[in-house]
Amino acid sequence: MKYGSFVMPEGVRFRVYAPNARRVSVTGDFCRWGEGTAMSREADGSWSAAVPEARLRQRYKYRILGADGTERLKADPYARCAELRSGTASVIWESSFVWSDEEWMRSRRAMGRPLNIYEVHAPSWKMHEDGSFYSWRELAAELIPYVSDMGFTHLELLPVTEHPLDASWGYQTTGFFAATARMGDPDGLKALINEAHRSGIGVILDWVPGHFCRDEQGLGRFDGTALYEGGDHPQWGTYTFDFSKACVREFLTDSARCWLTEYHADGLRVDGVSSMLYLNFGLEKDDPRVRHNSHGGEENEAAVDFLRTLNVKLSAEFPGVMMIAEESSAWPQVTWPPESGGLGFHYKWDMGWMNDTLRYCETDFPYRPHAHSLLNFSMMYAFSENFILPLSHDEVVHGKKSLIGRMPGDWWRQFAGLRLLWLYLLTHPGGKLCFMGGEFGQFIEWREYESLEWFLLSYDTHAGLQRFVRDACRLYRREKSLWEQDHGWEGFQWLDADDAAESVLAYRRRAEDGEETLCVLHFSPDRCIYRLGVPEPGAYEELLNSDDVRYGGSGNVHPGPLHSEAIPARGMEQSLLLELPSVGGLILKHTDRPEKAERLIHKE
Fold first, then answer.
1. SS3 state at 21
2. Integer Cα distance of 447 and 458 in angstroms
3. Which residues of the chain form CATH 3.20.20.80?
4. Residue ranges matching CATH 2.60.40.1180 in the chain
């Protein structure tokens, strides 16, 4: 990296890009925050200086006399470390961390493997009793074993970049290269990622290249001009980036490389892609700020080109790394290659599936037959992109209710409904993502200022739900039919898409070698004797049933092998007669040797 602070034999060398500044100096702890050391201007618009007195872990800022004649104290845009908020100074840093995740880094792949993501806001996953944050290393000691035990394949962290506002959750960034000081130094975050890799867990980091915080000591009016900003964001109270500028593109590309290189991240979830793609995102049509591109459209052509170029570069430099778009519009071909007109992401969040599914789950039972299309419509477009199905942090805040709080009915039915939602998530084509707390049924919405309510696990209903999620996630990982062909019809077949009267969905998931599982979901509380058409004659074993008493269910399970009958049903010559659980579902697997079959869910 050519900008930032660098520990050298002669002290510390500082280099910053401020092409329109009249004068720049560097000040900090090493000069008691006086005038500091004057920096020399270089031909490319950067300024540099060596400071013999500067030392590791000292704070510093740049004193910049801008083109507008105003002097400003600015944090280093490329700083690798920052002081704890509410302070905003940069910190001289040099990593001493030694990685031990070589095997993971050699073997990781972007596609063709199970993808079940546990989304976490690191400061509030668990806190000390006095409300203080865990350090990164303390968090690693508890979070990584938990994620591994629960059967998740990946951990996704809300932005770990430095930010001044706790309530922004990290999405209003000031330090695009600095891990937040809230939880310790940067090497602590590296230790957490290293431990995740050693436990076979990938780590995805939320990354926010669409806008930045308006903090006075940040990027805004950095050298007395709008060096980085393109304008005001109409919804988020931030500045947008001007993607037509070479310095912006270089800055953001370097930031992405930093997290992939220095922190060994396995993927970047790019936040707010829609706000980047459209010039008038968040504006009403009659707003005087409305703009159009040279073709009269509203597409931000510079941002489109930046994203395509970035994805191509990173995919070439970091094989196996995932680029994931949080994109909420109807922009086409987000996960298609740029040479085919796409944006080049590996995955896109399926916001349509999320909205339809949660609307259905909130629908009271008598009205569900009329809302059945909310469940089966997703398969009309499921393979148009490489999707991830998100039940994210955005869905459990701002009065939307927690996941379990959305479920209708009494206490028992609410837990049954959430178990069924998890089963639907894990068996539907596409990657999976669920925000922390959803795995044990936290009733209150997520609050970034306090820990999750772990005490709820002392209650049988919450513990049973968590046990079900653990077993279901482990089964998902074991059964390759549930993930190996996630992005095409060869991995999915409807067995029953249209039984609105009984609120039933049934489908078949297939692996490349023909191994398959059958999934039957019953969203009604009424008793249902159901004849399921099956593709092969013989015995079928129930691998998982959300109504098992171990999970808090009523025990309506099929403990022994089920034998098909030569009775046609729903287009199949063979069928099984099932008693479907109330607000529950099950997974079946064909077996040629029923006398030796076991309930696979109890294998470890």
1. coil
2. 21
3. 114-211+245-277+290-480
4. 487-602
State yes or no: pLDDT of 595 exceeds 60: no
Catalytic annotation, pick one of 271, 394, 439, 542: 271
Q: Indicate whether 1 pLDDT > 80.
A: no
Residues 348-369, mean pLDDT to the nearest whole number: 98
| Catalytic member of 326, 479, 496, 541 | 326
- Average pLDDT of the chain, as a whole number: 95
- Could you name the CATH architecture of 4-91? Sandwich (2.60)
pTM for the whole thing?
0.95
Q: What confidence score (pLDDT) does residue 530 get?
A: 96
Cis check for the bond before 554: say yes or no (omega within 30 of 0). no
> How many Cα atoms within 13 Å fall on the side-chain side of residue 473?
23
CA–CA dist 248, 306 (Å, integer): 10
Tell me where in the chain the CATH 2.60.40.10 domain(s) lie: 4-91
Q: What percent of the chain has pLDDT over 90?
A: 92
Given this structure, which CATH class describes domain 487-602?
Answer: mainly beta
Both tokens assigned to 504: 């039933």
Token representation of residue 597: 């079959």
Q: SS3 letters for 409-465? A: CCHHHHHHHHHHHHHHHHHCCCEEEEECCCCCCCCCCCCCCCCCCHHHHHCHHHHHH
pLDDT beyond 90 at 25: yes
Q: 275-302 pLDDT, tens per residue? A: 999 999 988 888 888 999 999 999 999 9
* CATH assignment of 114-211+245-277+290-480, among 3.30.565.10, 1.10.12.10, 3.40.50.2000, 3.20.20.80: 3.20.20.80
Q: Does residue 407 contact residue 414 with C-beta atoms inside 8 Å?
A: yes
The predicted-structure confidence for 325-352, as pLDDT tens digits, reads as follows 999 999 999 999 999 999 999 999 999 9
Is 271 one of the catalytic residues?
A: yes
User: In angstroms, how far is the first alpha carbon of the chain from the final one?
Assistant: 46
